[in-house]
Amino acid sequence: MTIHYRELGRSGLQVSPLSFGGNVLGWTADEAHSLALLDAWVAEGFNFIDTADVYSRWADGNSGGESETLLGRWLQQSGKREQVVIATKVGMSMGEGRKGLRPEYIREAVDASLQRLQTDYIDLYYAHLDDAETPLEDTLGAFDALVKAGKVRAIGASNYSAARLQEALRISTDNGLARYEVLQPLYNLYDRAEFEQELLPVVQQHQLGVSSYYALAAGFLTGKYRKPEDVGQSTRGASVVEKYLNPRGLLILDKLDIVAERYASTPATVALAWLMAQPGVTSPIVSASRTAQLPDLVAAARLELDADALEELRLASCYT
Known about the structure:
Keywords: Oxidoreductase. By secondary structure, this protein is α/β, with parallel strands linked by helices. The chain has one domain (6-225, 267-305): TIM Barrel, CATH 3.20.20.100. It is built from eleven helices and ten strands. It has helices spanning 31-43, 66-78, 103-117, 136-149, 162-175, 193-206, 237-240, 247-262, 267-276, 294-300, 307-316; strands at residues 6-7, 14-15, 19-21, 48-50, 85-90, 122-127, 152-158, 180-184, 209-210, 285-286. The strands form two sheets. An eight-stranded parallel beta sheet has the order 9-8-7-6-5-4-3-10, covered by helices on one side. A two-stranded antiparallel ribbon has the order 1-2. Helix 3 links the parallel strand 5 (85-90) and strand 6. The longest helix is centred in the last third of the chain and has 16 residues, at 247-262. The mean pLDDT is 96.
C-alpha cells in the first residue's frame, strides 16, 4: 500500500504521515543501527526525518550534535538528500552559553547544523524552545534572513504557548517576515488538553502544519509499561513514563488493547492511527531504536480506524 504524503501546512513541503524521530541516533541506536533504521524508514516510503542540534547531549560521553552527524553521514552514503525532508532545531542549551534564539546565535547554530548534516540547506528549521529574553522580532528577523539566503526552506516553532505563537505570527505578518509554518507540540492519546484546547485553534486559524512529539507518550502507549516495576525496561522509562501510570493511563491502555484486538493490530499502531486522524495533525514523530520496532509504526500509516474506534479512544482518554 502506497504511503500518501501530506501538505505540511503552507510550508510547501510534502511529508509522509509519520516522521522519524532522530533523538535515538547516537543514543539508544549506535551508528550501525542508526544507518539501518534510516535505510529501512525510507525504504518503506517515508520521507520525513526530525532531529535537533542538542540530540543527544544528555547521553554519557556526548556533547550534542551526534544525531545530526549520523544523519549527515547517512545522507552522504545513501545519496538520498533530495528524497527526504529534514527538520532540525535550535535553542536548547548546547553548553557554554550556546542556547536561546538571539540572532547571532541562530546564525552560528544553523551553520554548525548544516556542517554536521553535510548539506547546504535545511528543509524545516524549528525554534526548539521559546526564548522570552529575546524579542520575537529579532528571532523572526534572523530566521527570515536564513530563508532568504536559501539555508532554510521553512521555519517552525516547538514548545510555544498559544499566546506566544499567535504573537509571533502577528509580528511576521506585520513586518513581512517569514512566519512559523509548522508547530511541534506535545500531543498524543494521553497528552491532549493543551493542544486541543489552546494550540489547535491557532493552528487552524493560520493553517499551520503540526508534527507532534511523544506520539506514543515515550513508549507508554505501546503497552509495555503497566506497573511501576516496568519503567526500568528502557533508557528513558523511569524519567518520563511514571507520570502516565495512573487510573486514566491504564484505562487508555485497556481500550487500546480492545481496539487493537478488533483490528488484529497492536496498541502502538492503534494509538498512532488515532493521532494521525485528529484535526490539525500532519505528521507525528515516532522513534525506534531497532528495525524490529518499525513494523508497528509502518502499519499505523496504513490503518484507518472507523468512527466507533476513534470515539471509544477519545472517551477513554477524556481529560475533563
